[in-house]
Amino acid sequence: MAPAATRDTVDGDPRSAEVLRRKRRMKALWLVAGMLCLSLLTVALGVYTTTRTESLSITGYSSGVILAFGSFLGLLGLCLEENRKQLLVASIVFLSFGIIGSALCVLVDGVFILLGMDIRPLKAGRCQFYTSGNSYIYENYYASVPCQGLVESCTMRVRSGTCYCCDLYDCANGGYLNTYYEFVGVRSCQEVFSLYVCLWVLTALNVLTFILGILTTAVLGSIKDLKGSLYFTPSAMAVGVSQPGPSDKLQPDPNPPPFAPLYSLLPYKTPG
After folding, report:
1. Confidence band of 84 (pLDDT split at 50, 70, 90)
2. Could you give the CA distance from residue 241 to residue 235 in angstroms, rounded to a whole number?
3. Measured distance CA(4)–CA(11) in Å, rounded
4. What is the pLDDT of residues 103-156, one digit of tens each?
């Protein structure tokens, strides 16, 4: 009974290890796939927000590009057996740079841009939209428009397709110190408010990619250090199941070597 129980235990170990590794691999695949989708969403929203206006220098999509490439390498490393460790190491490196980029994007977009934008005049309807026409020949056309601020009034030069807020414009220094008093390239002032909401969503996505990137890097690092393979073939399982038991070791060899008791007493000669 003891040898049979021992054999059952030996036979069960490879299968339990296989199930454990498969579960870890599936969890890692879902995590990396979610990271890839979130990174692509960050890139899409960042590119959309950047191209809507020329007045905002948004950097939120740059971290998404790095994280998307790192996630793609991670998927290749989890799905391929060849060069698995090299692909996972490269994925961890790109994800690490993407995590740093996400933190910088949150700092730039969330602190410097969002906190520098004052949308109270926009909500109150005190911003005006100027356009010279819908044709592309008016894109670089500037015009002088009257600007009535809270304290004083003056004239300011705006380009066609610009939403400007006179309450945020300083007539004394020509608006030099006011960064976001006009938004060039928009279709209406309502679009500026939509861009403000998109910028908040982009900052939140960068925070999520920062947290999820740390988790993905940790999971890929633990899988990278596994000595066993993540993939099992039937031949490998057959080798693991057909391990010799204690009774197999007691069977004599059918072709034993010839008996030569004096062979060990012969002098040993080193070759020429």
Report:
1. confident
2. 10
3. 10
4. 999 998 888 888 888 888 888 888 889 887 665 555 667 788 888 877 778 888
| Whole-structure pTM value | 0.71
Burial of 224 from C-beta contacts in 10 A (0-12 / 13-18 / 19+): middle
pLDDT, position 13: 61
- Cα 185 from Cα 162, distance rounded (Å): 6
Encoded tokens for 167: 């309450």
In Å, how far are 100, 143, 184 from 148, measured between CA atoms?
A: 44, 16, 19
Element (H, E) at 199: helix 189-224
Handedness of CA 177, 180, 181, 182 (dihedral sign): positive
Going by C-beta distance under 8 Å and a sequence separation of 6 or more, which residues neighbour residue 13? 240
The C-alpha atoms of residue 20 and residue 14 are separated, in whole angstroms, by 10
46, 67 in Cβ contact below 8 A? no
Q: Which pair of structure tokens corresponds to residue 226?
A: 């596994």
**38, 84 contact by CB (below 8 A):** no
Express each pLDDT in 195-213 by its tens digit: 999 999 999 999 999 999 9
- Grouping H, G, I as helix, E, B as strand and the rest as coil, residue 230 is coil
Distance in angstroms (rounded) separating the CA atoms of residues 252 and 196: 83
Exposure of 71 in the CB half-sphere (CA atoms within 13 A): 27
Q: From CA 242, how far away is CA 234, in angstroms rounded?
A: 12
Judging by DSSP bridges, how do beta strands 162-165 and 127-130 pair with one another?
antiparallel
Q: How many CA atoms lie within 13 A of 114 on its CB side?
A: 19
In DSSP terms, which residues pair with 159 in a beta bridge?
Answer: 142
At 219, the amino acid letter reads V
